[in-house]
Amino acid sequence: MRSIHRFGLCLGVLALTTLAFRATPAARSAELMGFGASVLVGDGEIFVGEAANQFRPGRVYVYRKAGAGWQAAATLTRPDAVVGDRFGSSLTLDGNRLFVGAGSDAIHQFEKQADAWTHRAVIATNAVTGADNVQFGAVGAAGDWLLVGQQVIAAGRGGRGANTPPPPPGKVYAFKRGGDGAYAFTATILSPEQDPAGDNFGSAISMTPAAALIGASGQSSRAGLVHEFELDANGAWARTRSFAPQGIGPNEAFGSRIFLSGTDAVITAPNDAGGYGAAYVWRKVEQAARGGGAGAAQPATPRPGGNFTWQEVTRLAQAAGGRGAGFGTSIAADGNEIWVSAPRAGGAGGVFVFTHDGPTFPVESAKFIAPASIAPAAAAGQAISVRNGVAAVGATSLNVGGGGVVIYERDAGGAWKEQPIITPVLDELPALTGEERRCNSQGKVEMFDCASTELTAFLPPSKLTHDGHYIQMNDIWGWTDPRGGKEYALVGRRDGSTFVDMSNPLKPVPLADLPLTEGARPAAWRDIKIYKDHAFIVSDGAGQHGMQVFDLTRLRTITPQPNGQPRKVDADYLYKEIASAHNIVINEESGFAYAVGSSAGGTTCGGGLHMIDIHEPKLPKFAGCFQDNQTGRAGTGYSHDAQCVTYKGPDKRYKGHEICIGSNETAISIADVTDKKAPKALSRAGYPNVSYTHQGWFTDDHKYFYVDDEGDETAGLVKKTRTLIWDLTDLENPKLAKEHLGVEAASDHNLYIVGDYMYQANYKSGLRILNIKDRENPREVAYFDTAPYADNSPGFQGAWSVYPYFKSGVIIVNSIEQGLFLVRPSDRPIKREK
Q1: In the structure, how many helices (H) and strands (E) does the chain have?
Q2: Which residues, including other chains, have CB under 8 Å from residue 294's CB and lie 6 or more apart?
Q3: What is the pLDDT of residues 602-642, one digit of tens each?
């Protein structure tokens, strides 16, 4: 870390001026997304942006003090609001004018009249004359001017490839307010550097009516700078000077956030000191005429021109905390305090408050303010704003990812007191139950695209958790109670599993919520399979999760809570020989389970088959490992998924043997695991344009094996959803019979086969049903798109998995952001429980 030895030499000069940050002429901005990712404290108001909505247009909430608390007084949207419009991604306030960013394509201007904020105008990218493909980013506003930075996508910290050109230079677009109050594009402000490529000019903007500091936070190959611009005699913005800390280096991102007030500025370098982060305080001072002698520098006056320089006053660092805490993610200042956020400090995140008093700027030890009683990884401090004894701290991961804002008020004694946390209304689709909804002649069920399918019911995530919170979904499986034939959906979530009674498919009833293992963390991946009326559940990326075992017969006596939410339940047993596992595979005929993709501790088997004897479901026993070291990206035999069967196929040598086919990232791997102490690799096979061999399933006769490659669509290796059809007549010599390309371009995820039909969960294009009577020539015959606001392009949103094995004919689909769908093909009526 750099020490500021020269600070002491300037004490006599700096003593003439106190550092008092006030947000008077300088605009206050935030440029992030999600509820609490942009916050702004105004005069008696708090603005909170909610731009990253999934199922409703972006919003800005206006909160005002009412009695002892803060209440929502208004909700702002753009006039042409649509889902995905990113309205609220940035907030900038200048007097009675509020500027709201809408992603990268527009700024919306609101003006306050009496107590109401009214939409005044749209400043869109097409208003920027002569600029192609403009993407708006940082925003500054003061007086008659609005400056908007061009958003530049930065290279990763690892640097660019040798043949990858540097990002284009940044730009800032200047808009001036006319007599009618409308802003018109005036000029493009270019980076002053001789070789500006990759400088990220415009990464941050903070300004007064006559001056602006513009950050150029740099890329992996160049250090950050801050440039000062002032209005010249012709009314044009011209650079006057540039500055950076001595020794600042590439990747340290100096200039990422700027707070300017008069002649003082706070500027962050979030990657400073190898990732510990820093915030620098700078002061603008006037140099005496030549020959003035020592101590000739004088405090700056707020006027353009003159012989000025910016001097570094001090460097602020976290008093306690580690690398990667995010120190410097956001900044705010008011009076004699500087707030610097660290959204990952202390687990839940928080803010370091630096207090100074007097012209020599002695900074006291920072006080760390963190919200009380919130969950780890809440990201408190992702955005902050302070003004006149009120502070707002955005916590974007609070409320299980729904976001929240913590408000602080200064009491009579000068201490900051936390107020009740503000959280948004859940952003999810409404439940659809009580009647079957048929696919109409326009190919729609409500907002969902469809063909030859009907929707019997839909439940959003909040209906599937015991406390009603929103959480993203993942895998799914099913169980039919042998006593009476009642059907249940076993629904995976990032933080647990929900068991849903489907005996009335028009009114499914969530009964039980089994949370993740205590001490584990929510994760994107969870997998569920069954054996002898028990569910076996694993999670990947959750840390020390293990394999949960739950006796499904307990569901016979469980009823939901009075409010209709499922009851919280505990596992019956926790198998700890594995910690994290990507999937659990079960051969119900043999009584063996196979954890695959194991990591984070325990017996990982290189991520291959971790074999478990589950004949006694509540007393599972480790049985051995198998891994094909000639497969997997790391050469360890890692299996992403697998299917294990008691073989009944055409290869007579292996009839009755237990055969496992692993989808091993780079190839399929076929093994005979009949003898758990001596499993044997039979063969492996790759295929053209492999990206990520993900999952596959046998036809009922065990002759063909259908495989999805999860990455080939996103990598641009194929133009449509690709399914690889393997002929396994000879298990020791698998042959790729056909590459089937689907109707859409969506990425594929999981597929299952029942008789002559294949059921695919293809992310953004949802459930796709294919007729495979002609095994090598599948034909799509029906679909139900579970992701209504996503196009059918490659990517990882929408349908995660499908379970098509219920005798009733109901197909259940779990969709990541949306929730649980109960669907049936139009030609197969529902068979209800008697």
Answers
A1: 2, 64
A2: none
A3: 999 999 999 999 999 999 999 999 999 999 999 999 999 99
In whole angstroms, give the CA distance from residue 184 to residue 126: 12
Low-confidence ranges of the chain (pLDDT < 70): 1-33, 127, 129-134, 152-166, 288-306, 321, 358-360, 830-834
For residue 247 the two structure tokens come to 């020794």
Instruction: Yes or no: say if 598 and 605 are a contact pair by the CB < 8 Å rule.
Output: yes
What pTM did the predictor assign?
0.84
CA dist list (Å): 52 to 37, 59, 207, 578, 739: 9, 9, 27, 36, 37
d(CA 529, CA 514): 15
In angstroms, the CA 589 to CA 161 distance is: 51
- Residue 81 near residue 57 (C-beta atoms within 8 A): yes
CA-to-CA dists, residue 509 to 144, 435, 565, 704, 824, angstroms: 58, 14, 9, 37, 18
Detail the DSSP E strand segments found in 256-329. Answer: 258-261, 264-269, 278-286, 298-299, 308-316
Q: How many CA atoms lie within 13 A of 395 on its CB side?
A: 30
Q: Bridge-partner residues for 748, per DSSP?
A: none
Kindly report, residue by residue over 805-830, the tens digit of the pLDDT.
999 999 999 999 999 999 999 987 76
Token digits for 623?
């049985």
3-state secondary structure of 366: coil
Do residues 830 and 809 make contact, with C-beta atoms less than 8 angstroms apart?
yes
* 757, two tokens: 């039909």
The DSSP letter of residue 746 is P
Cα torsion 642, 643, 645, 649 to 10°: value is: -110
**CB under 8 Å to 551, separation ≥6 — which residues?**
533, 534, 572, 617, 618
Phi, psi of 676, deg, nearest 5: -65, -25
Closest CA to 662 of 629, 634, 689: 629
The single-letter code of the amino acid at 445 is: V
Residues 6+ apart with CB under 8 A from 427: 50, 53, 54, 55, 56, 402, 470
3-state DSSP helix/strand/coil percent for the chain, to nearest 5?
5, 45, 50
